[in-house]
Every structure is written in structure tokens, then in C-alpha cells.
Amino acid sequence: MSLRKSTLFFLFIALNTVLFAFMFVDASHRRASALPSFAEKRRFVKDLRLTDLCLFTDTRYTRHPSMADPFSPFQDHPFALEHFPSGSLLTPPPHLRLERRL
Amino acid sequence: MLIELKEIKKTYNQGRPNEHIALGGISLSIDEGLLTVLKGPSGSGKTTLLSILGCMARPTSGRIMLREREITSLPERFLTDIRRSTFGFIFQQFNLIKGISALENVMVPAYPRGEKRHILKEKAGHLLELFNISHKASARIEWLSGGEAQRVTIARALINDPKALIADEPTAHLDTRLSLEFMEIMGRLKGEGKTLLIASHDPIVYNSAVVDRIVEMRDGMLVATGSG
Amino acid sequence: MSWVEKQRNIIDFTISSLFRRKGKIAALTAVYTLIVFILASVIFFTSAIRREASLILRDAPEIVVQRLVAGRHDLIPLSYAERIREIRGVQAVSGRLWGYYYDPVYGANYTLVVPVDFPHPPGNIVIGDGLKRSSGATRDDIFPLRSHDGAMIPFIIKETISAASDLITADTILISEEDFRSLFGIAGGYATDLTLKVRNPKELSTIARKIGMIYPDTRPISRDEILRTYESVFDWRGGMMIVVLSGSVLAFVIFAWDKATGLSAEEKKEIGILKGLGWETSDVLLMKFWEGTAVSLSSFLMGILLAYCHVFFTASTLFEPALKGWSVIYPDFRLTPFIDPLQVANLFFLTVIPYTVATIAPSWRAATIDPDAVMRG
User: Fold this and answer.
1) Residue B227 binned pLDDT confidence (cut-offs 50, 70, 90)
2) Cα B26 versus chain centre, distance
3) I need a surface site. Which of B67, C198, C321, C367 has the fewest CB within 10 A?
4) Which residue of chain A is at minimal alpha-carbon distance from C321?
5) Could you tell me the end-to-end alpha-carbon distance of chain A, in angstroms, rounded to an integer?
6) Which CATH class is domain C60-230?
7) How far apart are CA A13 and CA A7, in angstroms?
């Protein structure tokens, strides 16, 4: 064993820290290269007049949470059981939780 | 004179029902460069006296002078520093750290001093060589025999180059041959100018020719002092 | 005799000491890394989605007017648009046609949308990539849809949308107005809802109020509300999130508890020996600090790095079962990395620091004992 244990430890931490820093670099690089695809998505939203991301496709109130009507199960009753798994992942939109008329 | 004790008393669990007076008022001076043996049965307070002499424990009352300097109420941090550079300890149970090599064990007491590792390694290696166990330098402590482990503890006690060596019942786990060998090593170290303090009720120790002085103890008090 | 050398010496000893209990430490580090991995994955995933939504949905309609009948979403008469158009501040009103289609062949739900200008003649559709994947259909294939009166209408796939836009169109079918109306049997004077263009965005709530007064059976939804929906998506208070969070916290507490409830006899003995050998209390605590830090720092860094790879290189594959649920069409979660440094810092302070403290604290007592106990022991 030629290297001291403490040296090995430092190298290990240093390596991880470098990767950690690199992570931020990679993130910003990817953000830059994602600009065209973002532009494309924005175009869809604008042209198609879309209002929601397509995150869950199992039920309508998780597919279009911003458009969800107050009759949907999870707003029915505070302790109502979820029918669909995606409902337990998604938080009800604020404008439904405090159902106030504009 | 290296150490002087004045009316040292040590009480454990003071004020509580299991109060135990280990030392009832000891006045003693230890001379430099000599081998002193503390003799007495178990429970006589030898170990306690040894701890106090080696600045490992504080007396309940009394004063300690180290080379004319009073160290009775020094704060822990200074005391530790003094202890590290003045005393090396050889424990009865060896107290070697399991799972690391003999060489590493010898180096441990010097770690907090921030010495460069390769210098430390050299020193430790040299010490192991002195006691003829350098061939076991990278062996795990668990694999060493009683005698080998004993020699590692002696090497360890010397890593910080202390002026004095304190040993508590060093021959308790050794056979006759190894005990004699141990006393021979002690003689060698005395020859190099070290002060030696050994607590033992083993005749091989206190009857050895290298002993300069025997201090007898009984029930926490000194009985008689005489030369060996 | 420098400070750095001292730290290095102590770290050497600490690592040796850790290696002695190799198995336990490895398990500990693995679990710790796993916890950080899960939490960091969730943080990365939800931050990225929220950012995606906030950027993409900026061009969503300013106001959407829905009609409610008996508390349920119903079609809105286009005649409503006339009166709404007259409200001061409203620039334009138009009907929007969209809806859901359940395909029993694949068990999938599709979102059908009628674009303002559909570039293809009736009988043709454009499908999203999710649809393409789940049905295997491709350009020029026939994709039959069953109309409201039971007839099977063979649509031809004219175009497919790329998977890069999955987060917005994975399940989408673009269809002409004529086909939409005949498919669902929706008369010409009705639309799914109305969308408004407003001159001054500050007047949104005033306009919304006026709409509500003219037509009490409508419900306006503003762009603000649409955006806010996604700000709070995957909020920690959501069901499964609470489970993940509590599970992680619980695991972590058990962890730290195991550490904090004191040292094993062996550890105590070791500390005693060190003190007997001349280590000061501060040296012992320093060792314990490095012990805690070695495990927690390593686990933290590895957990975060793995989480980043998981979310942004493998599109969160491990979350797939949870995210997919009973959906058949599942978007390709190709997310753009967005790391919120605040959340990463939070995670750091919530994991590394408590763990290190939990390692040092119980040693405090043992570290301050008089070394003579070692002599006597």
C-alpha cells in the first residue's frame, strides 16, 4: 500500500467533488442545448393553446390538473380515497384548494 | 529529582456510599535515571499511585512537582502535553488497538503531534528493530504472541521519546523466560538514561539486579523504602 | 508538526478504525447513500418539472372560460363569446375544442386537440410520440377511432410529433374541427371552453369577475392559476411524497439514533486507550468528527451524483412504476437539468450535519474520562 489512507480518502472526496462541480457545468450545458426543444414546446403551447404538461395519462384530473373541475374525486372530500395512483402524486392546484370565485 | 509527591491523597466516589480511599497521604520522590519498583499486594494502591505519578489522574489533595515545577492544578491540555513528552506507559493489559498493525500501534501516541508520517514510520520501525520484532511490523496485533505484544507496547511507550517509562504489572501475562527478558530490556533502557517506574508484586521484577529502589505499599500507604 | 499533518494522521487512524468494522460501515454508507439518492432524485425531478412548466406554459391562454353544469365540466355555447367579447379589456375570444378519448384496444387515454389551423385535410391526424410507442403505429398507418355513434372512423396518421415534446404532447392527437365534432357529436354552436386574449394582464381578475357576473354558470381560469398549479405540483404535502419523505426521514432517524445512543464497549475502550496514550479530549473528538464526516460526506456526494445521473441520464427510470401508475401512455421524461442550489444545500445540512453530530456527541462523555480508568481497567 503505497498511498496513505488519508491520501486515498482525500482523493476519493476530491474526485467526487470534481464530479459534483462538473454536474453543475453539465446542467448548464444541457440547458443551453435544450433551448431549441424548449422553443418547440412553447410553440406547441402557444399554437395549440395548451394549458398543461402531459405528466400522467391515467385520468383527466391528473392529465389537466389546471383545468380540473371541482367534481373530480380528489376534491370531493378531504379524505376521499384516490382512485388513481397519479392522484396521490399530484397536489391539487391552488385555485381548487381554496375554491374562491375570481 | 524527577517527580516529587507531597501528601497525595486519592479518594474515589467521594461522598457516596461506595467511597474508597485509594491513597491515604503519600509523600515520595522519584529520582531520575533510576529504576524504582512499587511493591505491594493488589488493592494496595500501586496502580493509583502510578497513574498519579504519570499525570494520568489528579489527586484529591496534595501536590505534585515535576522537576521543581508544580503541576498539580495544570489544565488538562498542558498536562497532556507534559505527560506525552515525559512519560511512556506500559499497561498491564497491553491495551493495543486491535485491527491495526504493530507498526501503526507504535505510531498512534504520536499522531496528535502532527509529525510527518514518514518520519514517524521510521522512528517506529527503528524501535521495533530495537526489540527484535521488526519482522512483525505489519502483522495484526491479534496475531502476536504475548511476548511479542509486550515488546510492541514497550516500543509504543517510547515513540514520543519520553524521559520516563511507567509499567503496571508488566510481567503479569508473561512466563519466567519472558519476564527475565523484560527486566533485561528495562536495564538497557536505564542504561540509556531513562527513568523507570514499575509496579509489580512479581519477585522476578523486584528481586532483579537492575532495581535501584523498592517502595512498599499497603492499604494506600507507604510501608518502607529501601534499596534492592 | 503542522495542523495539516495532524489532521492527516488522525484521518489515517480514523480510516483504519473504520475499516475494522468494514461490513457495518459499508452497510451504513450504502443506506445513507440510498437515502440521499432518493431524496435528491425527488428534488431534481420535481425542480426540473416545475421549471419546465414555468417556462413552457408562459404562453398558455390568458383566460380559459369553462362552463359548469351541476358541478361538472360541460360544453360552452359559442354565443357566450359575443357578450364576453364586449367586456372592456378583452381583445379576442375564441372557442377551444379538446377532449379525451379512451382507446379500449390499448387501454390508453388520448387527448384530442383541434389546432386553430390544422394543416391537413379531414380524415388525417397527427399523433404524439407516446401514442406512437404504445400502439406501434407510424406515419401513413391507419388509426381507427370510434365515434360517439359507434362507427369506426379510419384516420390516417399524417405526421408524428417528436419525443422531445413528449412532456406536452405525448398522448396528443391533433385533429381537424370537422372530424372532432363528428367524432364526438358536438354541434357547431358549442366548444369545450373559450380562450381569451386580454389587453392588459393586470385586468385579468376584473375581467374574470365580470364574466362570472354575466354568466354565473362559468368558471374562468387565469394563466396565473395555470402556472401556479405547476409551482405546487409534487408538493411535499402530496400523498406519495409524504410517504417518501417520511420513509427517508425515519430511516435516517433510526440511523442517527443507532449512533447517538452511545458507543459500543469496544469503542469506549478504544477511546480510553487513546486517552491513556496521550490523546487529548479534543484529539479524540476530532477523530470522531472525521469518522462521521468520512461516512456522511462520501454518502452525500455519491448520492447526489447518482441521483443526477438517474434523473437526467436515465429519465428517472426508477420512478417509472410510481409515475406510470395505471397509465398506458407514459411520456419520455427527458428533463432539462435544473439544480436548485438552495435545495441541495438544505439536503446537505439536513443529512451531513446531523449525522456528524450524532457521531461526535455520544463520544463526548467517553472522551472526557480520566485516562487513569484505562490503567485501572
Assistant:
1) very low
2) 19
3) C321
4) A85
5) 72
6) mainly beta
7) 10
Contacts of B78 (CB under 8 A, 6+ apart): none
Calpha distance C180→C112 (Å, rounded): 8
For the sheet containing C152-160, what is the strand order? C98-103, C108-113, C172-174, C124-127, C152-160, C142-146
Q: What is the pLDDT of residue A99?
A: 56
To the nearest whole Å, the CA of C289 is away from the closest chain B CA by 14
Using CB atoms, which residue from C5, C278, C280 is nearest to B116? C5
Q: CB under 8 Å to B135, separation ≥6 — which residues?
A: none
- What's the CA gap between B104 and B132, in Å, rounded? 16
Q: Quick check: helix, strand or coil at residue C234?
A: coil
Q: Which chains touch C (3 or more CB pairs under 8 A)?
A: A, B
Q: pTM score > 0.90 for this model?
A: no
Give the separation between CA C256 and CA C245, rounded to whole angstroms: 16
Calpha distance C276→C67 (Å, rounded):
82
- For residue B228, what pLDDT is reported? 41
**pLDDT tens figures, C40-53:** 999 899 999 999 99
A67 class by beta-carbon count within 10 Å (0-12 exposed, 13-18 middle, 19+ buried): buried
Q: Do the beta carbons of residue A51 and residue C63 sit within 8 Å?
A: no
Which are the contacts of A59, defined by CB distance < 8 A and separation ≥ 6? A83, A84, A86, A87, C109
Residues of B in contact with C1 (CB under 8 A): 113-115
How many CB pairs (< 8 A) connect B and C? 96
The C-alpha cell that represents C107 in the structure block: 387501454
Domains and CATH numbers, chain B: 3-226 (3.40.50.300)
Contacts of C60 (CB under 8 A, 6+ apart): A45, A49, A50, A51, C223, C226, C227
Specify which residues C127 forms β-bridges with.
Answer: C160, C173
